[in-house]
Design a protein that fits this description.
Rossmann fold; 310 residues; 13 helices; 44% helix; 2 domains
């Protein structure tokens, strides 16, 4: 029995060692606002770098927020590096502010774009990589589009909206709280015109509170379909058929705006990049289940795209 246990233990150690040797990871500070992790293949790899930009909210480099741990972006980075593609993912500046106990009351959407530009410029300046690709997830899709122009060699939209965020909110509120649909349209139209709103339904305070409105006004100035038209580079648009937050219609809108882009709809993949075989309850629970495996189809599409343009 002891002999079998020893063999089992050695086998596990050997497996962990072989997996660990597929890549190395190190922390990098881009500037006072941005810190992240760079994963590098232990072999020569492709000499390409994927810069991963996270979605809305206080999202850290791994794709997690308080009480929501799924490691979506960590799994994405590690999976790509195992395929020979280096990857850099970073904490949004609001994450660092929260950890330091200070939140910038003047935070705008433009700051996220500036941070993404700083990351791309940093790696361009190192001249380490032959090609740099930007992968923007959810809100990070629009951030990535704006930052990639004239700076990156390719762009990948991952669960990115094709509509103005104001129009996305109207759709979401109409489905989840239809009693506030008309009022929300009025509020969002005012915000789109750069006007603050004093009165709003308290049930929607998380969307329309006064301290958030300047950020939303800034975000609403950008149209994803216009931004993607500006990119003179290879583009890959990906969405999952089980995405509860961003429907495949959004991906189709981006494709219509950029006809030369590749479009991949991944069957059963959800917003946190894992396959969902069950119902919406399973889908929602997966947002806080970090041990779920990332979609192999997703990694295959991204790897094929990068290798084809390397």
């Amino acid at each position: 029995m002891k002999f079998r246990l020893l063999i089992f233990t050695l086998s596990i150690q050997s497996l962990l060692y072989s997996q660990a040797k597929l890549f190395t990871e190190k922390n990098i500070t881009i500037n006072k606002h941005v810190e992240g992790a760079l994963t590098i293949p232990t072999n020569n790899g492709t000499n390409s770098l994927a810069i991963i930009i996270g979605g809305s909210g206080p999202t850290d480099r791994d794709g997690n927020q308080n009480f929501l741990k799924n490691n979506a972006l960590k799994k994405l980075a590690h999976s790509l590096t195992e395929k020979g593609i280096s990857a850099f993912r970073y904490d949004k500046r609001i994450v660092k502010q929260i950890r330091q106990g200070y939140l910038d009351p003047n935070l705008t959407f433009n700051y996220f774009v500036e941070d993404a530009i700083a990351v791309i410029n940093y790696f361009n300046a190192t001249k380490t990589y032959h090609k740099i690709y930007v992968i923007g997830h959810s809100q990070g899709s629009l951030v990535g589009m704006l930052a990639s122009k004239d700076r990156a060699d390719g762009f990948i939209s991952l669960a990115g909206a094709g509509q103005n965020i104001g129009d996305v909110l109207i759709e979401q509120i109409s489905k989840t709280a239809p009693q506030f649909a008309n009022e929300s349209k009025t509020i969002i139209n005012r915000l789109k015109n750069g006007k603050l709103v004093k009165d709003y339904p308290q049930a929607l305070a998380s969307v329309f509170s006064k301290d958030i409105q300047p950020f939303m006004i800034n975000w609403m100035q950008y149209e994803p379909t216009e931004a993607i038209k500006e990119l003179q580079m290879p583009i890959l648009i990906i969405n999952g058929s089980k995405d509860l937050q961003v429907s495949t219609n959004e991906a189709n809108k981006l494709k219509e705006a950029a006809p030369k882009a590749q479009l991949k709809i991944i069957d059963k993949m959800n917003h946190v990049l894992v396959p969902i075989l069950g119902d919406d309850l399973e889908n929602s629970k997966s947002y806080n289940e970090p041990n779920r495996k990332i979609s192999k189809t997703l990694i295959g599409h991204i790897t094929t795209f990068i290798l084809a343009h390397n």
